[in-house]
Amino acid sequence: MTELAPLCVVLNGPSAVGKSTLAAAIQDHSVAPLLRFGVDEFYRMVPDQWAGGVKGARFADRGFTYQEVTSIPGARRINNGVDAISLLHAMNAAILGVLTAGVGVVVDGQAFEPSVNQDLENRLRKLQARGLASVAIIELAANDDSLADRQRRHAHPVGLSLHQNILPRQASTPDLVLDTTGLTADEVADHVCGWLDQTHAVSQHSPG
Fold first, then answer.
1. What is the DSSP letter of 79?
2. Cα pseudo-dihedral 166, 53, 156, 109, rounded to 10
3. What is the DSSP letter of 80?
């Protein structure tokens, strides 16, 4: 596709922090095509009988289930069962498959599952060390009030961001950490795309 190694931008952070809006902005900014593949796309592929939120799902305990967080009123979390973990690892393998085919990827969020997140980070860093990919792992953050306001205006499952915002960062060694509190979507996109231009030449790829 290009004469440079394909780019993989991983966007992490709690629900409603602005990952999807930023992913679209990065796709528009890049002169090389970047496929979008993230946790929302992934959840749409999960069979109903393993899916969170599906009433009476027979294999929900092995798949994905919503659970109340008793320590935080109104907060919920997604529990990943044994089959869910396998499916999440398969998503990592799919991301690597796209990259090794020479096509760039924007990873629009990962599940909050530390072992799976570390697996993807390790795989990407190894690919990068071999010169087969250019990797940018970005952690987005915002305070609770900002997340609550954004969640009210978007179709996110209620309460997920409240719990996710107290969890450790999803990446052990992020390349960029950005607090988006008080920033507009355009300001976040300008900051991140400018940084990607400086570090990964996103707007300067030449056709191969």
1. E
2. 60
3. E
- Total H helices, total E strands in the chain: 7, 7
pLDDT digits (tens, 9 = 90+) for 37-69: 999 899 999 999 999 888 999 999 999 999 999
Structure tokens at 9: 């931008």
- pTM, entire model: 0.92
Cα separation, 169 vs 153, whole angstroms? 24
> Could you report how far apart the first and last alpha carbons of the chain are, in Å?
6
The number of folded domains in the chain is 1
* Domain annotation covers residue 145: yes
Alpha-helix residue ranges (DSSP H) falling in the chain: 19-29, 39-45, 82-100, 114-129, 144-152, 160-164, 185-200
Residue 34 lies in a domain: yes
Are 91 and 177 contacting, i.e. CB atoms less than 8 angstroms apart?
A: no
Q: What is the mean pLDDT of the chain?
A: 92
Residue 164 lies in a domain: yes
Domain of residue 186 covers: 7-45+83-200
H or E segment and range at residue 108: strand 104-108
- Average the pLDDT over each of 90-94, 161-165, 192-196 and give the range with the smallest value: 161-165
In a domain, 57, yes or no: no
State residue 137's pLDDT score.
98
| CATH number for the domain harbouring residue 34 | 3.40.50.300
